[in-house]
Amino acid sequence: MRLNPQHASFAPGNRKAPLRDSIAVDRHSVYPRAQFQPILERFESYLEQHALSPATIRNYLADLRAFARWHTARGLHPLRFAPADFRAYREHLCNETKHSPATVNRRLQSLRQFGRFLHERGHTADNPTRGIPLLPSRNGHYPAPRTLTRAEVNRLAESIRRGRPSLVQRDHAIVQLMVQAGLRVHEVAAIRLGDLVTARRGMSLHVRGSGRGGERSVPLNAETTRALRDYLPTRPAIPRVDHLFLSQRGQPLSMRSIQRLVENYARAAGLPDVCAQTLRHTYAKNRLEETRDAAQVARWLGCNAKSLERYAR
């Protein structure tokens, strides 16, 4: 599977050059940093948009660099990725290294994320990592994402209530949209006032999606609806600014600001391993347990139903 030259021109300083002209392959180089760095930077931006913590992003990038070194050492083009390459790398990790299953799975998860990035951003026609299996742990289970218990959700909410009074309603509404509606950080940042749809039985949200998520309508439960209705009267009325969530200066709240506020409240609640993505994982797990309908939950999340198998226990 080759990168699409119309969408992927990663040559530094010459983004419009065709791929075949912009990349010179040095098969004697252990790691083609100059060729690989532009796509690595785009992948980093993609990870930031998906609400991953800075530490997680660093781990993903380190894992991808390790794959790039292995990939190039085999004499392959540094920016052409086929499904067979990822399967071969899995075999390498399993049979030629002394990594534990947990470490191998972490590296495979990094590659899966990279494969989704390649596909969603139009660099490959399909996801080249689809179908690459993780290793079972010693008890036969696959690693599940970190999720919050109800008690931990309450602790997080309490830490928000103890925060700056002028921000309590805004920040509570933001957290509710992630933990009770499963929104990604960039989707929260993109919400406009007109995206809130009020009906007799409650409220729903029109999500401005892209990539695999697409545009979708997400129903909001009573708790989230109440949080939004409490926040709206406190939202500053800024002319020609219709973003739902604003900074104290009246500017649309940035993705990094949303990530940071979640991490700060989580630390204050004694949950240092929690980030914005944890809230989305929590929603996915809870909704699956409530509905037993993976297809419907996937539509609400804007993802593939197969990706929800990791929450099943």
Write the layout of secondary structure elements.
Elements: H1 19-22, H2 33-49, H3 54-73, H4 83-95, H5 101-120, H6 150-161, H7 168-179, H8 185-190, E1 196-199, E2 202-207, E3 216-220, H9 222-231, H10 255-268, H11 276-291, H12 294-301
Antiparallel strand pairs: 1-2, 2-3
Question: How would you summarize this macromolecular structure in one to three sentences?
Answer:
With 313 residues, this protein is mainly alpha-helical. The protein has helices spanning 19-22, 33-49, 54-73, 83-95, 101-120, 150-161, 168-179, 185-190, 222-231, 255-268, 276-291, 294-301; strands at 196-199, 202-207, 216-220.
Describe the structure.
This protein has 313 residues and is mainly alpha-helical. The protein has two domains: 19-120, DNA polymerase, domain 1; 150-311, Intergrase catalytic core (hpI Integrase, Chain A). The chain has twelve helices and three strands. The chain is elongated, with a radius of gyration of 21 Å. The two termini are 34 Å apart. Mean pLDDT is 81; it is low at 1-31.
N/C terminus separation: 34 Å
Order of helices and strands: HHHHHHHHEEEHHHH
Give the amount of beta strand, in percent: under 5%
Which architecture name of the largest domain does CATH use? Orthogonal Bundle
